Amino acid sequence: MRDSNSWHPTAYRTHTIGQVTSNGEELEGSEVTVAGYAETVRGRGAICFLMLRDGTGQIQAFLKKDNMDGELFESIQSATRESTIQVTGKVAKKRPPKVAEGEPLPPPEYEVNVESGEILAMAAAPLPVGVTDEVNVGLDVRLDNRHLDVRRAHVNAMFQLRSKVLQYGREHLISEGFQEINSPKIIAAAAEGGTNLFPMKYFETDAYLSQSPQLYKQLAVLGGLERVFEIGPAFRAEKHDTYRHLNEFVSFDIEGAWMDDEDVMGVQERMIHHIWNSVASNDQGLIDVVNEYRASQGMEPVTVDVPSLPFPRIPYCDAIEIVKQGGGEIEWGDDIESHHCDIIAEKHPGFHFIPRWPMSMKPFYIHHKEDERGSSGGQLSRGFDLNYGRDEMTSGGAREHRVEILEGNLRDMGLDPEDFTFYTDGFRYGAPPHAGWGLGVARLLMVLTGAGNVREVVLFPRDRSRVTP
Ligand code: AMO
Questions:
Q1: Confidence of residue 414 (pLDDT cuts 50, 70, 90)
Q2: Closest ligand 1 atom to Cα of 247
């Protein structure tokens, strides 16, 4: 549950439910107002028990007809599940549960003895997705009703974990001297190749939605910001329909001057280490909620195993050999696909980097050194991926900072340098060597939470067949 002890009172409550349950002893006898969703309403006749839930916990509200307005009592007694209700009353110790003789009593729990209140909004019934009771509905129905789905404890916990991952990632990068930037998402030229752009009308001209902050984060570094990061949306008009691709995803990017590929791999592994370490120290409660659900579905629990540093580096050429030795069909110059990754993951089950890809497979902005050649003599690059199991988490690399070579790369890849002058001009007046990476936030969350689909950890996913809600 969230620690809400520093939250201020609002127009609708003097305390969060978490504040009342965790400070019951001090609050006993004082009047509080809390508000939340009605989980259950039990009791006929002149008394009733309302279980209220807000984002910080649950509490029982005890209602006695004699102690309050009769009409209000009756309307709360007949309130539907998930209706929102505000109640005011004194905090009191709950009657202790019966325990066997000689057994110690559990610590006391607290409830609110209701004196007044209000139904804020009555919920329609039946609910399309069960919140506290398990209803078997598919992912599509859940996503259609995401506003209710997120009220479920384990789904809520996954989004809290998502927020934590971003918080810990941010805090780590700031500690290494990176500063946060925001680059435009309406752009005129492709960063990652021209085929998967979403076109849009921009007044009298054509524009696109950004596929990656790539060119702009580089320009920020060339401009002297030195170490930057951005957490923002990226749009790709890919027709994939898989568990790990979306058409809009959040990309967590860094770029740093005076750094090469090895330097930014270091930043990446330290950041992931910090995230895992922080979750293990602070957020086991959220992982427990996820595991409670997993247990109810017969799934293995997830564990937050803090990875040791450094992560293994398996250069592309070696990765190809591992795949071949493991019986996979692959040649130098081929992409390493998921089924190949499975073979590599047998040897390296955790996070691992695959550095030094062939230049022919990397985008124009990736750096290469003429004398670095693969077994077949092919040109190697300073581009890398970070994988976990069968999934790519990140791509990155050292960047080409010599403008003539950059323009050559553009031409080699069938692009017109004239379309990129806004970018290449940034290199003409002194360009520091630099490097960076882009991490798929939802893919990292899949590893942390055990989710089998990125849609589980994206609030309102956008895929080929979904643009609502
Ligand atoms: P790349 O295209 O590999 O690299 O993207 C970086 C990371 O973003 C995630 N990702 C996706 N996640 C969900 N749905 C998608 N359709 C999708 N596409 C990519 C992946 C991937 O590893 N500019 C470079 C990064 C850099 O070099 O700094 C880039 O965008 O986790």
A1: confident
A2: 16
Last residue of a domain, one of 84, 103, 121: 121
Strand partners, 187: 208
Supply the pTM of this predicted model.
0.96
What's the domain range around 37? 17-121
Which CATH number does the domain housing residue 33 bear? 2.40.50.140
Alpha-carbon distance of 211 to 199, in angstroms, equals 11
Partners of 245 in the β-ladder:
none
User: What pLDDT, in 10s, does the model give residues 178-208?
Assistant: 999 999 999 987 777 667 999 999 999 999 9
Total domain count, the chain: 2
The set of protein residues with a Cβ atom below 6 angstroms from ligand 1 is: 192, 212, 214, 236, 238, 245-246, 249, 251, 253, 392-397, 436-438, 440, 442-443, 454
How far, in Å, CA of 438 to CA of 394, rounded? Answer: 6
**Cα–Cα dist 309/307, whole Å:** 7
Type of residue numbered 118 = E
Q: Residue 280's domain is classified under what CATH number? A: 3.30.930.10
CA distances (Å), origin 75, targets 85, 116, 238, 418 = 11, 12, 51, 70
Average pLDDT value over all residues in the chain: 95
Once rounded to an integer, what is the mean pLDDT over residues 152-167? 97
Instruction: Give the distance (Å) from ligand 1 centre to CA of residue 215.
Output: 14
